[in-house]
Amino acid sequence: MSNAVEIALIPLLPLAAFIVLGLFGRKHFNQSAGIIATTLLTTSAGLAFYTAYQYFFQYGKVAGVYQKVIVFKYTWLQFSEGFSIDMGAMIDPITAMMLVVVTLISLLVHIYSLAYLKGEKRFATYYAFLGLFTFSMLGLVLSSNIFQLYIFWELVGVSSFLLIGFYYDKPSAVAACKKAFIVTRFADLGFLIGILILSFYAGTFNFSELIERLTSYESSNLLTAINASFVGISALTWGLVLVFIGGAGKSAMFPLHIWLPDAMEGPTPVSALIHAATMVVAGVFLVARLFPVFQMSPPAMDIVAYTGIFSALFAAIIACTQTDIKRVLAYSTMSQIGFMMFALGVSKTGGEAGLGFTASMFHLFTHAMFKALLFLGAGAVIHYVHSNDMKDMGGLRKYLPITHITFLIACLAISGIPPFAGFFSKEEILLAAYQQNHLVFYAALITSGLTAFYMFRLYFSIFWNTAPSPLENLSKPFGRTGGEAHGDHPGEGGFAMMMPLVLLAIASCIAGFIPFGNFVTTDGKALASQMHLSFSIAPVALAVTGILIAVLFYKTNNNKADKLAASLNGFYKAAYRKFYIDEMYLFITNNILFGIIGKWAAWFDKNVVDGLVNATANGTGELSEKIKTFQSGKVQQYAIFFLVGVIGLAVLFIYIWK
Amino acid sequence: MSGSTIVFYLLAILTLVSAVLAVSSRQIFRAAIYLLFSLIGIAGFYFWMQYDFIAAVQIIVYVGGITVLIIFSIFLTQNAGELLPQQKIGKQVFAAAAVFCSFALVMLQVYKNNFIATTEQAIEPNIKAIGERMLATTAGGYALPFEVVSILLLAALVGCIVIAIRSTTTQPLTTVQEQDKI
Amino acid sequence: MLLLPGLYHLLFISTALFFIGMFGFFTRKNLITMLMSVELILNSVNLNFIAFNKYLWPNRLDGVFFTIFVIAIAAAEAAVAIAIIINLYRSHQSIDVAQTEEMKY
After folding, report:
1. Window B:105-164, CB contacts with A under 8 Å
2. Do B70 and C36 touch (CB under 8 A)?
């Protein structure tokens, strides 16, 4: 394909931004770093849109089926004949969609950060890290080879680490970035073992061949993989479950979700980019990429589905109690990703049964739009109020009008109110769940009701509820210079901050009308939109009920919410403390891992291994202490040894070796 | 028992006894004199073997030159009347043992060996023959080593002066005069 | 064992001188007495050369020449050694060999 260069440029331009700004940014480009990075990324986004357009409308479709197109490939490590790790790029419908999503959100975050982080001392470093992240994410979606995907997976983890810990002089940020990296790295151990199992049985690392060999019933690879078993579970299922564990870590599924709320310590545009729209969906992307192989193992699909729905419900419950607005949004993200995950989990292949897959990808697309919008809006609010806590806010709709309207649109979208984007994608997910698995469906229904409730709780607490303290906050002088310096509305962000919000709001309105089924399906063939109006009544009604309850509790200042919380006492407290999962992890690591295993391992290392090395060194030292007297500086001693040596040699040669 | 034999044994006793006393005497000046006698004994051996030239060279250079040099240096560096400190017994015993064993080994090998003398016509080792051979440039001539040794002597001369010269700016003459006053 | 003095007797004397010189070198503490022991060793070697020349190779003069050269070089060496001893005496105020042990571990 002649467009290999264009496709290669898409990730390489952000990489160039990383290298240039990383090496020279501090000294030379600190002021203009934002402009440079944004320009490079605009080009990249343009190329991504163009590539997607070309793929979807020009060459991707062959005989009505979207093909996987290998754009370029070269052999990197050859292990044996026919088994090698190649590097290359592959385009298929989900890749093209992800290219668009990642570059668009990254571009908007770049523009937003121009104003949000203005005056930041490490401006160039920030943009360098953003460039690194965008490069890694784009590389991840373009990978044609599971090992290459793993490489980029780790790179994404590293970028996330760097960006969460951007304010490295805050101990909480440092702890958060370490936690994120360690949890995802721990999950990646499972991912690696899964990769090795799957590629061992398939005999290849390339996606196209791996999927082909492990999905056709005649292939010997598949039969070997199914028949080989370990503690009663087939090797194929093991491989897939382990790969899913890696995806669950990155996508913050229960129980590997603990890092996501803490990751909100990073700057808010980072949260918008990484922890809402792009990195956390990498796990969903992975399952979608290996979807045909997952189909071969119903237990693995069940695990995916149940993990997804449990995470969704779990996160929704916790989000109802949190007061830090970014944490509410973080749990909301976890919940929505749970939706995407279980949609994949209940899906089958082909035609209407494959609705779950399409719905999941559609929700990924629309969720990116409105979740990024929510985070950027929250960023604008935080920028204005200088606090993350809901209690410090209230009645801000007078002061931040644009933010208010866009935030409202996003909340409506996420609650699934027509005609906004979230309605369409959520409906498809719920329909797929209803068709395949009723338990999941009812749980999902409850979760979407809760989603509407807590999102509007958030909305009203920020923009309506006039609690006593916030007004006093507004009269205090803010850290920045006076309001006139900020463009249209004093206090609100300015063009660079408002433009992305408006763009994303427009996207949230119209994205729902894209006929996604024409583009992204399980088998590449077009799937007609499955909109059944009668089916939609129940979810929408539930959402509206949730909104009304939120209005009741939070629109004006009252204590109804507190009374409800008091009546649910134990459960409320548990939900507020995130069901004590963090405490459980700390207990296990401190007492079991460190106390029982770690202590003995450390003792062994310090005393036996180090002791051996030290003993060697000490022994050598003492031996040399004894021997060094030979070099005494006494000439006569040298002479006498010389004589004795010569006589010894003479005796040797005369009498012994004739 | 001819006179030659008696002379030989007398010379042997002189040489060996003087050598032993030279290495074990506690007064340094006496040690130097015993060395002198030992060297004279060696010269006597050369005379006994009828190698007159070498005997003369031995007396002139060794006895007249080196021994005097040693005596001068004894004067220059310390009080000649002092007793040298007593050696550690252990060191002496060990050295004596090593030396005695080595001596025994070498003598054993020497006595076992059968020395075969050549049957050719003997040359008289007089000065004429030595001189002709030393300055001969034909094969078997010693002109080259002769020149090399003379250069070596020059180097030694220069080296001695360089080593022994005082590092301050005083003239060597002053040094000698100062030390002459001692 | 022949009583008539011959090569073996001379070799005995020269070997004895050699090892007496060695003993003196190992045992003496004064640098000048060590130098005297070295002179004994060199003399024993000269005696050896002349003895072999007389009894084994009377048709040649190689032993004589070796001896001449050894005497010349021994003289040069003794001179240099004395110069060094004088230099050492200046810096250490003593010519005890125990004072010269600085190049050690």
Report:
1. 105, 109
2. yes
